[in-house]
C-alpha cells in the first residue's frame, strides 16, 4: 500500500490517498490549535500520542462491534483507514458539564449529567461550527432520519465503551466529539480521531485536566499531560524519547 496525493489538510491531521481506493492514510501532525485556530503551536510527539490513543480507542470500539474507519498503523503517527464519505456533523456526548455547555447555559462546571447530553454541531469553520438540531439536519439533507437515529445511538454506545475503560483507569470522561462517515456500502462508521484533542478527560481524584484544555487555558505542560494520560489509557509508556 503506497501513500499517494494529499487529499485534505486539516488543523492537526493530513489525509492522503493510497493506491487502494477503499483505503486512505491519516497522518497525525504535531500541530495543535484552539479557539477556531486563533491559538496555534507545534508540539513534538503530540501527533504520535494522539494517533496511539485513537488507535487504542478504535480497537476497543471494534471489539465492542462498533464499526470504525481504523485499519492499522503504518508508523507511530500514521494510520490506515477506510475511505468514508464524511458527514459534516460534530457529535458531542457530555457526561459532566464543561466547556461551551457551561458558557452558554446555566450549568455548573463539573455538574454530572445523567443521562448524558448529546449535542450536534454543524461542521463548518467559516460558520464557527454552529449547534444544529434534527430538523435542520434533515432539511439540509445531511443524513436520513434513520441514519440520524443510528448516529445518536452509536455515539451513546461509544460513550459507554470509552467511559467504562476510562473509569477503570481513574479517569472521568467529561465529554468528547465524534465524526461519522459512510463507507461504500452506506454503513455509518466512526471516523476522524478520538484523542486528547477531541475529549475532556479529568483525573477522577484531583479533577485535573489531561486533555486539550491544558493547552487552551494554559493549565500546565501540555505534552507532559498528554504523555501521562496516553500511558494511563493504553498502558503503553512508548514514545521516541522515553
Ligand atoms: O467546546 P465544547 O465544550 O463544545 O467541546 C465539547 C467537546 O468536544 C470537547 O471535548 C472538545 O474538545 C470537543 N470538540 C472537538 N472539536 C470541536 C469542538 C469540540 O473535538 N470542533
Summarize the structure.
This protein has 242 residues and is of the alpha+beta class.
Keywords:
242 residues; alpha+beta; Phosphorylase Kinase, domain 1; D-amino Acid Aminotransferase, Chain A, domain 1; five-stranded antiparallel beta sheet; 15 strands; 33% strand; globular; binds cytidine-5'-monophosphate
What does this structure look like?
The protein has 242 residues and is of the alpha+beta class. The protein has two domains: 3-82, Phosphorylase Kinase, domain 1, CATH 3.30.200.20; 85-231, D-amino Acid Aminotransferase, Chain A, domain 1. The chain is 29% helix and 33% strand. The protein contains six helices and 15 strands. It has helices at residues 46-63, 99-104, 134-139, 145-168, 213-216, 222-234, and strands at residues 3-9, 13-18, 23-28, 31-34, 39-42, 70-75, 78-82, 85-86, 89-96, 112-122, 131-132, 171-178, 180-182, 188-190, 199-203. The strands form four sheets. A five-stranded antiparallel β-sheet has the order 1-2-3-7-6. Strand 10 (112-122) and strand 11 (131-132) form a beta hairpin. Helix 1 packs parallel to helix 6. The model has no long low-confidence stretch (mean pLDDT 97). Bound molecules: cytidine-5'-monophosphate. Cytidine-5'-monophosphate (C5P) is lined by residues 90, 92, 99-101, 129, 175-177, 198-200, 212.
What is the fold's blueprint, element by element?
Elements: E1 3-9, E2 13-18, E3 23-28, E4 31-34, E5 39-42, H1 46-63, E6 70-75, E7 78-82, E8 85-86, E9 89-96, H2 99-104, E10 112-122, E11 131-132, H3 134-139, H4 145-168, E12 171-178, E13 180-182, E14 188-190, E15 199-203, H5 213-216, H6 222-234
Antiparallel strand pairs: 1-2, 2-3, 3-7, 4-5, 6-7, 8-13, 9-10, 9-12, 10-11, 12-15, 13-14
Helix pairs in contact: 1-6
Bound molecules: cytidine-5'-monophosphate.
Residues 90, 92, 99-101, 129, 175-177, 198-200, 212 line the site of cytidine-5'-monophosphate (C5P).
